[in-house]
Automatic annotation (TrEMBL):
Name under which the protein is recorded: GNAT family N-acetyltransferase
GO MF annotation: an example: acyltransferase activity, transferring groups other than amino-acyl groups
Xref: PROSITE patterns: GNAT (PS51186)
Record keywords, A-Z: Transferase
Originating species: Georgenia thermotolerans
InterPro entries per UniProt: Acyl_CoA_acyltransferase, GNAT_dom
Length: 190
């Protein structure tokens, strides 16, 4: 897995990745439809140029395909914190270790390079898969922001907030590193 700075060159690959299983149709997610991918990338690039976010494309090492996006957002430099969010992965990349590896890279940069004291993750209350994945990283649930956002269909979103704090980072890093090592040992030999 590699993380590449998001660019318009990724439009076609990411449109194909999101089309695998109609990921964008899930009412509790905010994933762009294939035909909206160019607009979504342009939106993220504009926010990046404004200094609001840092977006990446997630590329699978085994076949070189772009399989998703992830972002640093809600960055508050004076409080040394940020959120890792707006993440989605193609169905074929889920439960493969790609998310774990991407988060290990992002968390390492946040804590070890940027000096963050806290990294947050947020998801929809009804997105059980995402909640399990975030908890599986070692993040702890901080709380629920009720009626936090209005969804694209007009429903009210309760947002579940998780975080990892700097004092937890060494243990979380060790856990993620071991999970990746076990996954590699169990991977089929090509």
């Amino acid at each position: 897995m590699t993380l590449e700075p998001l660019s318009l060159e990724h439009v076609d690959e990411l449109a194909q990745a999101v089309a695998e299983d109609g990921l964008w149709k899930r009412w509790y997610t905010n994933v762009p439809a294939p035909e909206q991918m160019g607009d979504e990338i342009e939106r993220r690039l504009a926010r990046h140029a404004a200094g609001d976010i840092v977006p990446w494309t997630v590329r699978r090492a085994s076949d070189g395909r772009a399989v998703g996006m992830t972002t640093y957002c809600n960055m508050v430099e004076e409080h040394r914190r940020l959120e890792i969010g707006y993440t989605w992965l193609a169905v074929s990349a889920q439960r493969t270790g790609i998310n774990t590896e991407a988060k290990l890279h992002l968390l390492s940069r946040a804590f070890d390079t940027l000096g963050c004291i806290a990294v947050e993750f947020c998801t929809h209350w009804h997105n059980q898969q995402s909640r399990r994945a975030i908890a599986g990283l070692g993040a702890k649930q901080d709380g629920v922001l009720r009626n936090h956002r209005i969804g694209r269909d007009g429903t009210l979103r309760d947002t579940v907030v998780f975080s990892i704090i700097a004092s937890e980072w060494p243990t979380v890093r060790l856990s993620l590193t071991e999970k990746l090592a076990r996954a590699r040992e169990q991977a089929p030999v090509a």
